[in-house]
Each structure stands twice: as C-alpha cells, then as structure tokens.
Batch of 4 targets.
Target 1
Amino acid sequence: MSCLQQNMTGTVAVAHAARLARIDVIAAYPITPQTKIVEAIAQFIADGKMDSQFIQVESEHSGLAAVIAAASNGVRTFTATSSQGLLYMHEMLHWAAAARVPVVMANVNRALAPPWNIYADHQDAVSQRDTGWLQLFAETNQEAFDLTLQAFRIAEDERVRLPVLVNLDGFTLSHTYEPVQLPSATEVDAFLPAFRPDDWLDPKKPQTINGVSSPEHYIQFRALQRESIDRAANVVREVAGEFQRFFGRAGNGLISDVWLRDAEIVFVAMGSAASTIHGQVEAWRAEGRAVGLLKIRSYRPFPERDVRSLLQRARVVVVWDRAYSFGYGAPLATELRSALYGSDDPPKILSAVGGLGGAHIGCTELKAALGWANQALAGEDVKEELWFGVKPRDAGRDQR
C-alpha cells in the first residue's frame, strides 16, 4: 500500500474521503462546525480534483431531499451537517432509511440549543437513533476518514442498502490537526468500486417508488428494513476486515477494546472521549490496576453480541454518555443494560454522564469515576448514575 500522510483536521479528512470515494452528487448547507467539510469539497471541485455535482440548497432539509433524489437515480451521494441541521433533516432521515437509499452523511457532533452551544456532545446523533440509519462514531481524524470510506461500502451493499451516518466530535476532531494517512485513488477504487445498483429510476423502465401503501403492505416494508439493519452488523465486520486487508487498519468495525482480558472495571465510551480514557487506562495499568476500555464504534447496529462476550468477565462497567434520554436515563448505559440482560452474573452498570456541551472530560473526572467504580467493586451501595461537571446550585435561585 502506498499512502500520503498529512496533518489535517477531521473535517478535511472527511472531505478527502468523499473525494476518493468519487461521489457523483453532494448537496449540503453550511453549519458550524461542519462547514469546513463542504468548503473543502467545493474547493476540490473548483480545482478540478473532483468530478462531482455540488447542489447549493437553502436548508439542511432540502440538502438531504436532494441527495435522496440523486441516490434514487443510481448515483453515489454524500452530505454533511451538525446539530440543529441534523434535527432540521429529521423528516428526510426517516424518508432516506425507509426508501432504502445508500446515502452517506457526516455529522459533526454538536450540542443542541437552547442555550446555544457550538461544542461537542452526542445528543444530536443519539436523538436520531430510531430513524433507521446506521450510525458510526469516530475516535480520531484517521478513523473519521476510514469510516467514511467504509460507510459507502456498507450502505451500498445489497444486503443492507441503508443510509449511514458517520459521527465525529465537533472541534475536538473537526478543527484539530492530526496525522492522517491518505491512500491513493487507485487503491481506493479497488476497495470501493463504482456504485452500480440494479434498481434505479430509468425513463426507459418506468416505475413508481415510495408511493402510498396499504397497512398489510406497509408492515412488510418495515420488516424488510429491520432485516437489513440486522444483517448490517456482519457487513460492518466484513467491510472492516476488507479495509484492513487493503490498508492495514480497521479491526472489528463495530467495537475496539483495550486491556479487557482480565479487567475487573471496564469503561465504555463512543467518539473522541475514548482516546482520553484510553490514555488513562494505560496509566492505570502501569500502576497495576485491572481496568479496561470498550469503545463502541457502531451505535446502530448496536454490537450486542460483542458486548455480551467481552464484558462477561468484568465486575463493574462505567458507561460514559455524552447524551441523555430525559425521563429515563443515559442512552448508551441503557443499551448496555439491555445487551447484558439475562447474562449469568452480569457486571454492575454505572452510568456516567459528562462532556455535555463540550464540558471537560479529563483526568480529574476519570479518576473520580474510577473511585466510584471501586466503591461498587467493594460492594458499597452507590448511585447508579452520576453527572460530572455539574456545579452546586445556589439555594433559591431560578435555574432556568
């Protein structure tokens, strides 16, 4: 494999992945901190480095509608957004998944308003978990590049044919420079052949798609959609394996793990926070502490089988969430509890909520979480959910 290593931001890395994927159509609307993706792609097109049609639209809703239409015509499509823009697409997110169009979208994770905040958490993506999209979370800029390329292979696979959302944390990845290895166009072409679907809109073969359906047929469409996303877990693994064969990196595709073989306490996280936790786990290991890390790379489909297998020896699991399902609890912790339900002697699940709105996740927070986990390990009665970074309220003050 030949490759060029450059220092670049996560947004530019994603733009290079779209360039090397030879997308035919992009439609997008600018929003912080995603804007640099579409700016870079627009520059590639202007410089003659990409042969793609850039459709300028008036909103995120229109942007996703445009690429759905383009994908229905049998071409490879891409778009990107963040935060409120992803929410504005909500209707079209359901449409893309149910219409089974293999759109790939990058979402630069950013907290939702109000109050206005431009920094990262995962509420935007997690709030769209039931739309039917596959969701992948990048830990590094290199992974943002790699997952974007893999997303096209996954989405376009005939066993899947569903849209894929590639998430990368705003500013932490999108605007931070890291070394990224870029393979040659020839190598990417071998890994990712041109998109040639069998069923697409052709004036010579008229057909109706996405029309009105009776109840007895509607449920059949949803059952087929469910079967496809269930199959997607194995496709994600296969594509990751192929990517590793071509480019020398990838792993499982659904998850990554660090020091899990003998870990009594395991931290679970998605996105860039996994890097911070990884560094702290290595430091704890040097001190002789039996601590490990499980990184969830694929949120949808959720890697239930891997979770049950890899956490069977753990005694306490600290799940770090950067989102919250109000009225019930932290979503990733809820997923872990569900995945482990019915296991023989399951570990104690502790839900750590932190990093919302870009709040700091560092050594202080992680050491406090480890102390909390050690208390649970010792059999003490501890709270199952703690929020990190919340300051004490002033007595009698209106907190709205």
Target 2
Amino acid sequence: MRAVETYGKGHVVTAVKTEPAATAGATDSKDPAQGSSSYQAHVAIVLSEEKFDELEKEAQKWRTSKVTVEGGLWRLGQLYDGASNPPLKEKSTDADWETHFASLAKWVAKYPASATARIATAEAYVNYAWVARGTGYADKVKENGWELFGERLEKAKSALMEAAELKEKCPEWYSVMFNVALGDGWDKKQARELFDQAVAFEPGFLFYYNQYAYFILPKWYGEEGEAQAFAEEASKQVGGAMGSIIYFEVAGETACQCDKDRDSMEQLSWAKIKEGYANLKKVYGSSNQDDNKFAYMAYSEGDKPAAQEAFETIGNAWSRTVWRSGENYDGARAWAAGP
C-alpha cells in the first residue's frame, strides 16, 4: 500500500484530449474484429518483432496526448492490451507465453528506465495468471491452477514495484494494480484507497471506475447494492455529462456480469443510464461493447424503442461477453422488433 500511496506524489494532472476516433489514430468501428482489436494485434506483432523503439514512441505519444477512442478509453490502454498478450492471444500456448516474456525482458533490458516495459510485463503476468486460474468461480479452480495463479501474480507485483521506483509514471500502473488487488483479494478499504489514489493521479482515466465497481460486486468482495451506490456517488461527485457517463459505465458492470443469475438492474436508474449512454455517444462515441451493454440493459428493462435503436446500431456484431450466445442475442433482437 505504501507504493499505492506514494506512486503519484508530485504528479501534475493535465487535460484529457478527447478526439473522434478517426482523428485520434483509431479505427474503432462497430465491428469488434476491427478498430481497437486490430491495433492491439499490431502492437503484439511489433513487440514480437522486438521493435522496442517503436513501442516507446507510441507509448509516449498516447500517454502525453491522452487521446481517447470510442467508449472513452485511452489509446494508451489499448497499447498495453496488445503488449501484454502474445499474438493470437486466444490460442496462445505456454510456449507462446515464454516467447512473449522473453521479448518483454529484452524490452526492459534495452529501456531500463521505461515504465511502459515494466508495466506491460506486469500486465502480461496478470493475464497469464488468469490463464492458469480460468474465469470460473473459485470452487471450480483446481489446486495447481491456484498455485500457478499465485506465482504469476507475485511476478506481476514485482514488476509493478520495479516500475514504481522509476521516474517515469503512467496511469496504467494503477489499472494493473487493480487486477492484482482483485486476484489477491485485498480488503475493500485498500481497494478504495487504490481507487482514490488512481483518480487523483488521472481523473480522465475512466476505466478506474469500471475496475473498482467490478471489485465491489457481490461475486467478488462487495455486498448487494454496493456497486449501485457507488454509481450514484461517483456520478454526483464528478457531475455533468462526465458524471452521467460514469453512471452508465458502472451500471454496465452490475447489469452485465456475464452470468444471467447475477445480472441485475435493481437499484439502478434507467433514466440515468440512458442519459449516460447518450452523453457517451456525444463526447466519445460508443464502442461496440457499450452498444451491446446498452441493448442488454434496455432489453432487461423492457424498453423496446431504446433496445431497437441499439440493435440497429449493433447489427450482427453482438458481444459474447454480454449475451453469452447468439441465440440469446437473436431472441432479444426479435423481441425488440416485435409489436
């Protein structure tokens, strides 16, 4: 926690540069196979080819400009996502991961003062830890999975501690630490301190709100209604259009938990969700995932006009993490189109 409390000491916050995706260098279309995912794949290939100079220039550019893309996420975060997974990450073997970590180690060796290289290494170990654990509930994880999970999280923490000693600082450090906190099972007081320090360091890094909301869901370390209360608190504290966008983002975490038995619209304001989604589209443009979450929430709320408009935007680009199956998506879409 000492590192969390001191990481941002002396940091001066500057304005976020919000630009349309096309002018920001992004091509994040409504097709999830294009845009951000293609950029992430590009970064993974650049890393595998050990073009570290290019990665450093890209990271500095996105960190300094704070360019955001559709959905309000930073382009910098997309770079880290690409750098923290092997190419073709969904099919990666242990050998692929070993090769990937070897490339990351070379990056660190060539740029010992680079925060980006060490944070990407930490994020890669977090991702590799979840490969060992799996994404199911704790009672389904095998003993060997827990052992590897713990070992890899420790390596992630070590890389983050090394990054904390560097002069160069980065908002992604807190984001990766959130993932460590989730895996390690920090208590809620510690998680809230991490969130508060993260937002103080970089208020415009919206993903912090999603991560903290996810942490306090009942399936992790929170109580029923806690995430909903956080949505109210955060939206009021920030205020204006940005506050409403945060409400939408946090609501999406509790309403779309990838588990039909846990998805919940209870204690959420549908009017505020709609307002936040509308403002998101105006300020940043909505991502494919945002559109899918809104459609799912509109379907859950029984708002046919809102759902129909969202389904028209999505077309066939449905999200498996939101709908779980094409059958579920097609059924909801048919309902929206009906009388």
Target 3
Amino acid sequence: MRCLHVYSGNLFGGVERVLITLAGERANTRALDHDIALAFDGDLAGRLRAAGITPHILGPVHARNPLTIARARRALARIIAATAPDALICHGAWAHLLLGSTASRAGIPLVWWVHGAFNAAHWLDRFAASRPADLVICNSAFTRSTVTGHVGSTPVRVIFNPVSVAEVSGRQREHRRRQMGVRPGEKVVMQAGRMEPSKGHEILLRALARLRDRTDWVLWEVGAPQRPREVRYLNTLRRLAADLGLADRVHFVGRRDDVTELIAAADVYAQANIAPEGFGLTLVEAMLSGVPVVTSALGAAQELVDDTCGILVPPGDISVLTTVIGRLLDDERARRHLGSGGPSRGYIVANPAARLHDLAIAVEDLMRGRRVA
C-alpha cells in the first residue's frame, strides 16, 4: 500500500520530525510505502531529501489567498493521478481543511492525522472538523479526548508517534559536553522545542532561579524562533534569565541539527508545560536516550512518562519543580535509575516499526471497509 502524506512544511517541530521518521523507516515498513507532498520547499523538504525521500512541492499556500489554494489542489491532484496512492493522509488541521478535498475528488480515502489538542474556539480546527474524513488518527488518547464529539461518526484511532534516536556512546556524550563547555562535576538540565509560552520556559527559569546559589548546573534551552511572536518571546526569556541572575547559567543554544545528541549529553530533561500537548516527542527522545524526564502532569505526558523513567509535577508549581530538579541534581543514583528505565518505556510507546504497523493496519481496515461498502 502507498500513502501520500500532505503537510505545509514551512515551520519545523514535532510533526516535521514524525515525517522524517516515516522517511527514515521506509525500509522497515514494507507493508506501507510513504510519499510526501509539501506546500513549502523549506527546512523540512531539505531534511526529507537527506533521509531518502524527495517530497513533492505543491507551491506556497496561504489561507487568505484562494488562488494559491486552488493551484496547490491542482498540483496535488496531478500527484495523485501519477502515483496512485491508496490513501491521502493530511497532517494537521491546515492541510486537512485546505487540501483534503482533493482526496474525495480523486476517489481515494482521506485520513486526518491530528497532532495536537483540538480547539473548537479556533477557526482552523472548527472548519477542519466540518470537512468529512474517512478516518481520524490521533497521536494520543488525550488528543482523541479533545476530538471526540467534533468529527461526527468518523472512526478515530490512537496511534502514538513513531520516534527513533541514534545511539550515542559514552565517549560521544563526553565529547559533546566538552564542546558545549560543561565543566567537570557540572550537571546539564535541558529543554528543547518551539519557542512558545505553553512549553513552560518561564516556569523552568523561575524554578532554577531558586537553585542559583548552587554552582553545579547549567541549562541548555535548545530551539530557535520561527515567527515574529517567537522572536519576541525569546527576547522576553533572555531578559528574564538576566533579571533572575541566571544569564551565565542559561544557554540559549538556538537551532541545532543534533538535538537528540544534545539530549543524550544532558543529565535531566525538564519541560514545565503550562498547557497540555498532544504528544511530547522530545520527552520520548529523552527517554530513549536514557535521560530522566521531569515534566508537567498534563495532556499526553501522563500517557508517556511513568515512574520508571521520569517524574510528573503539578503544572505551574514552581516549588515542586525546584525540589524535584534539585533532588535529581543531588542524587546520581536516582538519575541513573530513571535514565535506565527510559529506553524500554520509550520503545513500548514509540517503537517506529510497531507504530507504523499500526498505521498500516488502520489503512488496511479503512480500505477493506470501503470495499465492503
């Protein structure tokens, strides 16, 4: 079977990394072949080419410009005619709303893959839900709970995101720490992701400020702003770090192509979310890398992180977060214990072969149902 995945491709985050995993795992998922179409030829397109998939480029699409939408739909229809996919999978509300109708016109099943909490108050999610799909895939039970009731009788399946990380040796880890200027005896707390307030950067900074008298830790904040509001937010975080007396302890690392290697070089992965996430890809990457996870008891994190690999804290509770991080910085044995449980837990929830097998079964069932009908 062949699936054609459709996405915008103009930013870079969790969805983009899922698509890269699909590209990298093609050899291990013979039951399902993946093709990808993007509106924008940007960072994601380049990384997909490096992973072995040449994406189809539809051309820039802007929701307020009907001509760009019509042009992209025509381009997508030509790709469908040329490649004959068995199903069209639209990732996110934007792709589903603007480009999903091409599937019905071509007579193939339409799948809407929802990667985050459904927000009925937002026009994009609301209008996307009004476009019929043959199947909705949610990346967690939490995401499904937000979608249920908005997609009518459309069947909904939960498939955790596939996550894969390269193994990092102890020697590579120490080399990366030296590159980053980590001193002997210093512990690294790390967070990686989009520069968005919901990720809880401010909460983490305020918690670490209570540990500023200690000289044995640094924080790596990995991620670069991609939109003007994210630039403003990053500037706010820089000022806050300075105001809290942490300017020399907090390193805003920016955009990196070696995020998983940096995670493996850290001692604690901390993400103090103040809003629930649909999945939490970097949490799983930390687990697979053998790094203990500290995150908020919100959203899908409660499905992914258990007491074998991490600690869930009340969202927004700076005191508890400070205590938990401080205890892990003090206790190497605790760090090793939680770190050692991460790979097996990460494998259970996000093993790429298993999750892509789930996807193949979902598409097979969908096609079987259409044939019976």
Target 4
Amino acid sequence: MNKAEESIGKEYSRSIWRNFCKSIQNYELIQDGDRIAVCISGGKDSMLLAKCMQRYQKYGGVNFELVFLAMNPGYSEETVQKVADNAKLLEIPLEMYSTRVFESAERCSKNPCFLCSRLRRGWLYGKAQEIGCNKIALGHHFNDVIETILMGILYGSQVQTMMPKLYSENYTGVEVIRPLYLVHESDIVSWADFNGLEFIQCACSVTKNSGSSKRKEVKELIESLKKTNPSVEMNIFRSVENVNLNTLISYHSGSNYRHFLENYREGVTIRGKKTDTKCQEE
C-alpha cells in the first residue's frame, strides 16, 4: 500500500474516507455484481476517486469489479505523460484512449466548454457500455454540487442540483454515480498536498485563454459569503433536500408541469389544512 492510499484511511479517515463511504451508503451507489468504469481525467478529484474505489473494493464488503478508464481529448504529450506517471505512482491500472474532443470543441465559437463536456461524456458512456460496465463513477465532489445549485439559480433560471446518481438517457443499462458527493474540495486539495502530489488542471486551450468561467464566479461568490456565514455551503446543499412544494410558484417532473394556482383556486394549504381564500373579517 502506497503512502497516498494509506493516508486515506489514516490522516483523512474522517474528512475523506468517512464521507466517501457515507455517499455510497446514503445514495445506494454500489451493489454486488456491479462492473464500474472509474473515469480518470488526470485531475486531483478523479485520481482520489480511483484510490477510494480501490480501497472500497478491498474493505467495503461489496463484491464488484473496477475498470479505470481515461480519455485523452487532445492533451499535449507532456500532459499525457503526467497522467500516466501519476497513475503508475498511485498504482492505478489505467486504460487510456485518444480522441479529438478538444479539436471539435475549439471550433465551436459559442459554449465550447458545454460542447467539450457533452462530447467527453458521450464518449465515456459509449466506451463503458462497450466494455460491459453498468456504472460510470465520476469525480464530482460536494463543492461541485453546491456550485451547480447556485449556477442554476443565477444563470439558468431554475432550481436543480447535480444528482448523486442517474441513469443515462442515451445509453441503455449505464448508470452514473458520484461517490465523492459528500467530500469537500478543500480536503481533496489537502490530501494531494499532504502526499506531495501534483495533478493536471483543465488542459483545454479555450479555458486557458478565457481565464474565467461562470463556475469560477460562483466559487468566488461562495468563498465571499463564507466570510460572514461559515455555514453557507451546507445551507446551499440542504436547500435542495428541504424543498417545500407548497411554497413554489411552479414545478415540473419530466413533462408533468404544475402551477400553484391549480390548488390555490380551491383553497390555500396552510399547515396541512385547506382554508377559504376569501378575506374574512374578524
């Protein structure tokens, strides 16, 4: 067992390992007989995910298979070598495949990051299905979740979150899981620094040239809010766990759309009881 893996069960047993296991158990992410493709981008999140999945395979009490899948979307030779070196250092048996995703995304003048994400996701789903995997494990963490909530509100005019698991709409039999769902990014950074590990950042030229993104803006906003409200991150997270449908103007589930006026015309629901909507004199 190498130092980085050992530290997950020692120095980071509470902050990382416990929250990793809690995510799996709370959201029922892994079952006996699963064949899971762990998707490796080469960054800190996916590399930690790989090590946690290996550890859970040893000690989690669940019988499942792992495949460590990496896509080269058009990295430089130096970046590809960095990913391969880190995988070897961390004892991750990586399978890497080359694609031309960056080339396609960079030709898109509008929303290249969205296109890049879509193309990469589609390729990974297809590859996972091809090699007989029923699940894909992604390295999204707690901070990705709360940033997605705020981005939806501020830029998308909608209340939604990044789900801990979901079925692929286009690839039958493939399910996406996010085992780092309750792990904080600051603890991932700390784990990498503690072990002297250096991982790649986003290697896309579009991101390098722009220097900013909506997600970065939201990340900075949350950091600013934390200065006066240390609980703001958990409050954002719990906001999508404690949704009261009686206080929403409208909502939908798939194509089923509901508006509050549908019930209001027949009477207002207050504390579980219907009352007359007409004004009453005392």
